Each structure stands twice: as C-alpha cells, then as structure tokens.
Prior knowledge:
aminopeptidase activity, ArgJ-like_dom_sf, 11 strands, Peptidase T4
Amino acid sequence: MADHLNLLTDVEGVAVGHSTDLALGSGVTAIIFDEPAVASCTVLGGAPGGRDTALLDPAMTVGVVDGLVLSGGSAFGLDAAGGVQAGLREIGRGLKVGNALVPIVPQAILFDLINGGNKDWGLHSPYRDLGYAAFKAAGKGPFALGSVGAGTGATTATVKGGLGSASATSSKGYKIAAIVAVNALGSATIGNGPHFWAAPFEESGEFGGLGMPETIDSRLRLKGTNITATTIGAIVTDARLTKAEAHRLSISAHDGFARALLPTHLPLDGDTVFAASTGRHARDDMPGFMELCHLAAIVMARAIARGVFEAAALPVEGAQPAWRDRFAGPPGIRPH
C-alpha cells in the first residue's frame, strides 16, 4: 500500500469495497476491518435510516464491530448489511455466541429513490446482493471516488453528489481518515459557482484548488422541500480509543459537515457519522485526542468536497449535472 493515498485505506487494517449499479442509480460501500474495531456513531439529521446504530451508544454492551456499511436505497437499502454479514460469516468473522457467529455490521442509508434510476426491482430489493458484492470487492489501497458505491445516486442542491474520502496524520503520528456519501439537501458549493465551502481546508488541489470566491452567497439552496436526503460517512483512526472517545470523535466529524455543506443537519436530512478505532497505536493523552477531534472535522470536510468534485452524472435522462459538467475549471484540473 502506498504511504499516502488520501483515502480511508491510509489507516492500516481497513479495506473498502464498492458495488455500483448505474441502471439502478444506486450502490453500496463496505468498510471492513482486519480485526474488530471499537466504534460508535452520532445521528444529527432529522430523518435518519440505520441498522444496528443503537448498539453503538457508549452505554450499550457491544464494544466492537467487524465492518460498517454505507448504502443508497433508503429503507430498502438496509438489506445491504445482510449481504456484508454473509460475506463476513463466510470467512469466519463475527461475535461468537455459543456455536453461532454474528458479524456486527452497523449501517446507514441515504435516499436516492427518485434520481431517475430504475427502481422497479420486483419482489425483493437488490441491496443484499449489492452488499455481498461490496464485501467481496473490499481491498486495501486505492479505491474509486465519485459516483460509485453508496455515492452512485447521490445528489445535492446544486450539482451531483458522490462518494469522497480524505486522510491526515496527527502531530503524534496517528492516522485519521474519512469516507462519506454526499447526498445533502443543501449544497457543497457556494452560490451558483464552482467554489467549495470546504476550500479553506483543501490540500494539494484535491478538489480543484479554486480557493474561495471574492464574495460569499449564503442564500438558502435546497434540492427540495418535501423530499429526504442524507449525508452519511465514517471517520477511522489507528489511535486506540474507548467507545466513549469514538462517540466524541463522531460528533467532531459532524463539524466537517457544517464546514462543507450549507445548510446541513436539516429536518429532512438523515446525517449520520460512524467513528471507529483500529487500536493499532496506543494513546492515553488528552491533547492527542483533542487533535484527532480537530482533524476529524477537517478530513470530513475535505472528503465531502472530493465526493462532489469527483462525481459524474448518472446515465439517465434528466440526471442532475455533475460539477465537471457545469464547471470545466482551468486547464489541468482533472479528477484525481
């Protein structure tokens, strides 16, 4: 694996896999840990959808997870975790309860049911199979961004949404990274122009290097007032955390939503962030943990902008244009 990919897989012991169905206009992203990871989550949107999120409360008994799932499909998409569970059980992973193995795979879903894709799937939704395919595709190293996996059918108020990721290293050497499917009711871009709200945190031109515009248009922009949306993601570190600390890290990552999307956490968003620790590096100092909370917000903001920057319009009539469709940008700007 490369030393720095600017992806979630920069954190050792983490694999990512996508399954993408462009005709369906949806997909699934699986995050698989080599070993069970301490995890928690925070839900701040008003219209969330999730599976096994309650067990991630710090007061609940189960302390670790085998994987996490991000999916399109709204409530139908919750079948995807079953597919990932099947894959994990197949390789002998899971919480041992007597003679049974129960893989712990919390999930969050986003609403992409009216994006123009063919949702006439018959009696059973395809998401369990998509979840299994995402598990089988999971690997270390590079993975695709944009209109793939859980970001396949994502949209925003102004341009096509997508799947993004970014990473950083703390001053103490801890790795921290974000992955996110951007399907916001609001916008990741400023006004009607190409600039991103997350521009102050951009590194190495990862989403175009355009900086901030001369004036800021902060007027409300929504993709609708009677539909649900949702941005869902995860923040992962190799620093050892308790479950309560992982919960606090997930709250800090939501600050990245507020820095990259305007508005966010609305009544019809289901904004959810998981946080997980692989525990590869010991940590017991408060200053080091506070720096991780700081970085969680920044890498999440960068990941959101990258997801939108890398997205491509769905191949369906009337599909929402992507950032690249609307803003060619200066010569040399290309998706990374």
